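TICKET #2291
ISSUE: user wants both folds in one file
ATTACHMENT 1:
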Amino acid sequence: MLSKLLKIGIVCPYSWDTPGGVGNHVRDLAEYLIAQGHDVSVLAPASEDALLPSYVVNAGKPISIPYNGAVARILFGPVAYSRVRSWIAEGNFDLLHLHEPAIPSISLLACWAAEGPMVGTFHAAAKHQKIIFAIGPILEPAIEKLSARIAVSEAARLTLTDHLDTDAVVIPNGIYASRYMHGSPQSKWQGNTIGFIGRFEESRKGLSVLIDALPVISRFAPDVKVFVAGPGDPEEAIKSIDPQLRTRFEFLGKISESDKADFMASVALYVAPNTGGESFGIIVAEALAGGACVVASDIPAFDDLLGHGQFGALFESENSTELAKVVIDLLRNKDKRLELAKSGKDHAQVFDWSVVAEQIYSVYEMSMVGGSKVRVAQDSRSWSRFLSKEEKP
């Protein structure tokens, strides 16, 4: 633990009122720090009518842009820059923690606008981050201002080193493992059942891979049932399912955290068929904590999280035939399935906030050596002039 209570400013680049892994991580970290007695202010974009916790400051209405295989709702530009500078000037922070400062967002703006102890956490993991290449010449001097850098996985660290020639300490995303450890199995989700949670309309979440695997799975497990939870309109997904197999799928919509714990404790297998763009996999870690036997694509983030197959079964990404083989094997072998689920549940404890926060605290302490506080950068007006030029048609 830190030796003294701190005033910490955290910047979330993505819209607070749009669900996502980075936003969930920032929320949980902020609330964990507050519970420990620290004074925390989070700056994030949000819609005008968003209901925000008392610790969140609205930086302004975000815009939607395609990013990393999804749609990101972020905020950038001179007006946002002015708001960021005001928040920093008024905050009197001991430390700033900037999430995803390598993309055009308020995290990057804060990196430009501030001086003093600053920690950057990098979440993205992708082979080709075109947006980084495009602004590389102005991004690198800003990133060099960071006192310390964190990557949420080895895949995210490699993305950072490949694109910006800098390194980071790997600290995984945190979860509240205890929230998922004591779920109650529900008969409605038990049996030869497969669970999936995510924004299934996004192709990178891989629901189509699972859909394509089901004809083979159903031949060997005629009573198999797939439960899909998460936001989205299921009508388009249903159209892509063989009419004879549509009764095998049930779309649950969004489910609560308590229902999620029961869900993980109930399904025979939890499948994460994501095709890429994942830097860690919070839902996979939660599935492990909930005692589910996890089957995941072998994308780098999941391969690392599951200990290269030690804590969950892996299949070749985007290969529905391979997924079907792994699922059939585990549905047929209950002992193997239970053993894998137990090892995964034990492993999930390393992602609990009580463990992850200690690692983040250590980075904070290292960043604050020297005792200076966060202040508005003396040369920040040059960045303001740059932004004004960029806004001109």
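ATTACHMENT 2:
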Amino acid sequence: MFGRGLPLFRILGFQVKLDASWLILAVLVTWSLAAGYFPMRYEGLSGPTYLWMGVAGALGLFGSIVFHELSHSLVARRYGMSIRGITLFIFGGVAEMEDEPPTAQAEFLMAIAGPIASALLSISFYFLSDFGLRMGMDAPVPGVLGYLGFINMLLAGFNLVPAFPLDGGRMLRAVLWGWRGDLRWATRIAANAGASFGIALIAFGLFNVVTGNLIGGIWFMLIGFFVRSAAAGSYSQMETRRFFQGEPVRRFMVTDSITAPPDITVHRLVEDYIYRHYHELFPVVEDSRLLGCIGIAEIRQVPRERWDLVRVFDAMSPASPENTVGADTDAVEALAIMRRTGNSRLMVTEDGRLVGLVTLKDLLRLIAFKMDLEGMG
């Protein structure tokens, strides 16, 4: 779903990252609060005051989302689930799980932890806002606290909608999973509910656009498209995992890989390898030993006028856990590495030797074939 993101900080062992799209949300929230919400609720304040209130509200929302996702992550860790980190993006945040929950109970408790955390935050902010007013504080501080109380209650309520991948949808899947013991069936039902909810949001957004609420309507439509897409993607991910679970990478790898020697120049690599074979990546091998890989991304880092001077060995990316995988590694783990690193090709090794390549394109093609065959059956 996301790229690597910008690492911000670690909290309780979890890496918090910021997707570039979250900056759009930050600007929209700050602008809407400073230009609309706070001036409407608290008249007569200065422009700079409204601005800092908007910035404070956006930062408070940032912290609230982190707290919401952190609650998911802590419960997930309690049940042995691996969390890669917390990523904030334009539609909120997500705790990135490496695998599906081990039991229906674990999923239900992990899912409900988020809305509970947001509800507790809401109550706390409302209490602080009321306390500030009773103590005679100027309107801006209680105003920001009151907004954070409202937005956290809204966050808790929205996430309780039984539509996957929202927390309520995960709770629905957990209940169905516990009832029938069939995770695939439960995921399909919850994902269909999510897709229907997404369509409803899109329709509501269109209604708002037609009736004159352009910004709000577009925002509802965007959220609807995201929910619908995420619901479909979640079920596809489940089917992918079902297909590849327990299958070693060696079953899906290509063994006739074209390799490049480390001592040729980048210019020769381009002329004799890339323009001849049209591959995006070439493993670099010397005396049957895998050294690394080089492709379009690495070549772009070398100035064109230095192609005749720089060797492949000096320009390549060294072999590492981000671009290599063992031949007996579970294919699901290989897909997780691709998703985490953004690499669509992994070199398959055995005792330090290159034995093949596995590509995301080939894996997806196999999934398409399987779905076609099952559909025919």
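RESOLUTION: both attachments delivered.
EXTRA DETAIL ON ATTACHMENT 2: The chain has a mean pLDDT of 85.
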